[in-house]
Amino acid sequence: MEAKIKQEFNKRFNGEQGTLYASAGRINLIGEHTDYNGGFVFPGAIDKVIMAEIAPNGTDKVRVFSIDINEYAEFGLKESDAPEQQWARYIFGVCREILKRGGSVKGFDAVFAGNVPLGAGLSSSAALESCFAFALNDMFNGNTIDKFELAKIGQSTEHNYCGVNCGIMDQFASVFGKKDHLMRLDCRSMEYEYFPFKIDGYKLVLVDSKVKHALVDSPYNKRRQSCERVAAKLGIETLRDATKEALDAVRGEISAEDYFRAKFVIEEKDRVLAVCDALEKGDCETVGQKMYETHAGLSKDYEVSCEELDYLNDVAKECGVTGSRIMGGGFGGCTINLVKDDLYDNFITTVTRKFAEKYGHEPVIYPVVISDGARRVEE
Ligand code: ADP
Ligand code: MG
Questions:
Q1: Active-site residue 170, yes or no?
Q2: φ and ψ at residue 248, rounded to 5 degrees
């Protein structure tokens, strides 16, 4: 990828040379639907990145070529200069959000490419934003914008320029990612802690069902409303502060649906903490067990799974996979699986064959390794 980018940059920009930057996609080991409840998430950056070569060009224009989409875009830096292409709006948005915060961005030339699968739940968009946010901070701001602000710049880009009302986890993971470490982010205080992710003898692999169920009413908003109703009933701000005992005490006064939604959120918070403890002890078996519990909770209590994802989970269990669960909001997308090395090949072959037999298409397999996030690529 690096060579391809350099060659293209050299060709497009008359033998000029820029600096290489990269940022990563992410996984979330555990902690689902916890962010808007003030709970914990536990993401890590992966070995799939967006990489860009960038050089200031002395003008007030940004000129950028996307190798993967094979398109060129050119735009100014004023609010009214927004480009048409969706991919370019991510870059424009990052420039604008830096400027809005009083930072500096001048014209630059860029060529970029990536290997984060698009729309598979690995956050290729956050990788793209974080790569440019990190680069423009390094290039035009002497790295004076702190890393949390870089993540927020990516998040605001999604909100204000791409129409995606996302949380902070994806950009946080992409910016802060560290090789062989996961990060427990407290979505209430925004404090975070690195945990070594040493899984010798195991691999992490995503299995993408390639299905996306379009649902009539917004199930996401309905889940949020359930959580808010229960929190209000308990007299607390978010379910982060709820206990199972407190929930059980009001069980007769709330709907069964709200009860099970809140039950999942409360249990999921404890599971994240349990997984962190287990990792510190090198206990991958407990990590895996908690992943299965999360899947069951997402499927039965939170009701955001679907037939295909439940099937992937069942096949993982049959194959002796240590841990497996839906990753992401649900209703389609990937499962994340923690698999012993010696079972890995069999699992991949079996899940591919069985899923294809049942649903008529093969799932896509993404092995992932926990790696560094946003960075300048050393040459
Ligand atoms: P994801 O879950 O992968 O973040 P999104 O729909 O949020 O999916 O973001 C995908 C969008 O990000 C693409 O439509 C494209 O605009 C942009 N993007 C991601 N990766 C690339 C890439 N390698 N080259 C160009 N644009 C990219
Ligand atoms: Mg995205």
A1: yes
A2: -60, -30
Q: Which of 5, 21, 27, 128 to mutate to test the pocket of ligand 1 (most atoms within 8 A of CB)?
A: 128
Query: CB within 5 A of ion ligand 2: which residues?
Result: 125
Cβ count near 35 (within 10 Å): 18
- Confirm if 170 and 129 have CB atoms less than 8 A apart: no
- Locate 178 and state its tokens: 């560290």
Per-residue pLDDT reduced to its tens digit, 278-316: 999 999 999 999 999 999 999 999 999 999 999 999 999
pLDDT at 214 over 90: no
Which of 161, 154, 157 shows the shortest CA–CA distance to 176? 154
Spatial contact of 355 and 209, defined as CB atoms under 8 Å apart: yes
pTM of the complete model: 0.96
Q: Predicted confidence band at 334 (pLDDT cuts at 50, 70, 90)?
A: very high
Closest CA to 370 of 201, 209, 208, 199: 199
pLDDT of residue 166: 87
